[in-house]
Amino acid sequence: MTAVAGMTFNIDAWDPGYGSSMEAEELAKSQAEVELDVEVPATEWAPIDPSPVPSPPDAVLFVDGVRRIDARVWIDDPAGANSASIGICASYAAGVVCCCEGRAHVIGTDVRRGLFTVAAEASGIATSAGRYEAFHATAKDDKPLAVVLSSALQEQLAETELDTATAARRAIDGHVGHDLLVVDGPLSGRTHLPRAVGFIKSHQTTYLPGDLNAMVGRLGPHQRTPVFLMGTTWVRHSWYLRLPSAGGPPWSGVVRVEAAPHLAREEVTDLANVTQSVLGRFASVPYKDSRAPQNLYPIAGLERDLRHRLGDQQFVYRALRLAAAR
Question: Can you give the pLDDT at residue 310?
Fold first, then answer.
């Protein structure tokens, strides 16, 4: 392949089916209120090298969830006001992987099924593949029904992840000492969990001023930005971290990490240093994962396990059809 003279370019390593690690076509300046002087004054911002962690975690717990639409359903209106209302039947699951003592093992999973609809008269559906509990969403004039139902499903998945993470920590109580809990995705709704961080793999928005945002692209492997505080619909600490990666676009291997807003400066700085020293060892490589290096090995393995636990989609679909026929 011959390129135009003088042109340089990089290929995004992510499988196009997953979008991009940096959604450039959608990148927008955030309206979030950002406080830059949390760890160091804004005038002293520079890439931070890894430093020895006095008390590294004995275990790193990774929390993730998966969801799947099994069928779309039409729910008859018994009052006859409307002919029918559409809903979705979905399977979703959450799990936790514990990485400790040189091994990784699943310490908790929870599989659930639900019917999500705005129909007030809807009730749960019993099938041979399990019961679909009814969750009633509220229709919104400014949002399509599909978005409303998807959001309701995502809320239940987040609740399942929280329940699973809490149970997993109880299960290892006494098994390990100090741990770190890594939630795949934003930490919203889980900021009360101790020693927890959110792990953001892709970027759609810029939160830093132009010159500091450009500095993110210049981070070396295992380097991070100073901690900053930002507020949108919720407040959290955050920092950017580059995982070890083999070249690529400027933001290749860059993730954003979130932590609770109530942490003191020393606490959140220590937590940032821990993530800097720990997360890089779990970074994936392109020939093993199409979302390398951001899709960490424990998260990728957990996703595969959870999708298997959802059951065969065709079997589940037939079970729903039989339940409708009854």
Answer: 97
DSSP 214: H
**Structure tokens belonging to residue 200:** 């953001």
Q: How far is 62 from 64, CA to CA, in rounded Å? A: 7
Structure confidence at residue 9 as a pLDDT band (50, 70, 90): very low
d(CA 254, CA 14): 13
Cα separation of 144 and 139, whole Å? 8
- 260 burial type by CB count under 10 A (0-12 exposed, 13-18 middle, 19+ buried): buried
pLDDT tens-place string over residues 209-259: 888 988 998 999 999 999 999 998 899 999 999 999 776 777 888 999 999
267: three-class secondary structure by DSSP: helix
Total-model pTM = 0.87
Q: 179-184 and 196-200: which strand pairing? A: parallel
Please provide the average confidence, as pLDDT, over all residues in the chain. Answer: 87
Distance, in Å, from the CA atom of 203 to the CA atom of 253, rounded to the nearest integer, reads 11
Maximum Cα interatomic distance, the chain, rounded to a whole number of Å: 70
* Six-digit token string for 228: 């900053």
Pairing of strands 103-117, 84-100: antiparallel
Q: Are 223 and 210 in contact (CB under 8 A)?
A: no
At 105, is the pLDDT very low, low, confident or very high (cuts 50, 70, 90)? very high
Positive or negative, the Cα torsion across 280, 281, 283, 286?
Answer: positive
**Residues 6+ positions from 89 with CB-CB distance below 8 Å:** 69, 70, 71, 72, 73, 113, 114, 115, 116, 125, 132, 320
Give the DSSP H/E element, type plus range, for residue 61: strand 59-76
